[in-house]
């Protein structure tokens, strides 16, 4: 029997990444610094998902550029209201790479370039300005 534990992504600026995830309601639940290994592990979860579905941020203290997908593909989170969530992100300066034109799905990126898929529980009616927005960049 298998059980999902977490998804790990490597980050260069953990505090910026934590602030980013807080915008969609995901919070830090624990942190472990390893002096000998020169890294910090920070675990994030949505409320009620602690220990069930977590994201592990790995911050190597020696700066490293991540290329060739070395830091991952994408994460997916269900949100209560995709339009409200996307507006909060835009207000905080986050680019919406694939707007929620259909009232169901959007894609954004973390400060380290990790793609995050936002999914509406069900589907909301298309709403402006989102319905007519073009994609920005890749997702």
Characterize the structure shown.
The protein is α/β, with parallel strands linked by helices. The chain has one domain: 2,3-Dihydroxybiphenyl 1,2-Dioxygenase, domain 1. 14% of the residues lie in helices and 34% in strands. It has 2 helices and 8 strands. It has helices at residues 14-22, 82-91, and strands at residues 6-10, 27-34, 39-45, 54-60, 74-79, 96-98, 105-109, 115-120. The strands form 2 sheets. Strands 1-4-3-2 form a 4-stranded mixed β-sheet, with helices on one face. A 4-stranded mixed β-sheet has the order 5-8-7-6, covered by helices on one side. A hairpin with a 5-residue loop joins β7 and β8. It is globular, with a radius of gyration of 16 Å. The termini are far apart. The mean pLDDT is 88.
Secondary structure layout:
Elements: E1 6-10, H1 14-22, E2 27-34, E3 39-45, E4 54-60, E5 74-79, H2 82-91, E6 96-98, E7 105-109, E8 115-120
């Amino acid at each position: 029997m298998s059980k999902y534990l977490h998804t790990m992504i490597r980050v260069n600026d953990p505090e910026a990444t934590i602030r980013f995830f807080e915008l969609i309601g995901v919070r830090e639940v624990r942190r472990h610094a390893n002096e000998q290994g020169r890294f910090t592990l920070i675990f994030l979860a949505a409320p009620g998902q602690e220990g069930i579905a977590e994201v592990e941020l790995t911050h190597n203290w020696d700066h490293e550029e991540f290329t060739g997908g070395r830091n991952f593909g994408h994460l997916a989170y269900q949100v209560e209201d995709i339009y409200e969530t996307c507006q909060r992100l835009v207000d905080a300066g986050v680019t919406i790479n694939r707007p929620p034109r259909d009232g169901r799905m959007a894609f954004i990126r973390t400060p380290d370039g990790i793609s995050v898929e936002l999914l509406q529980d069900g589907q909301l009616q298309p709403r402006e300005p989102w319905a007519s927005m073009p994609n920005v960049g890749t997702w």
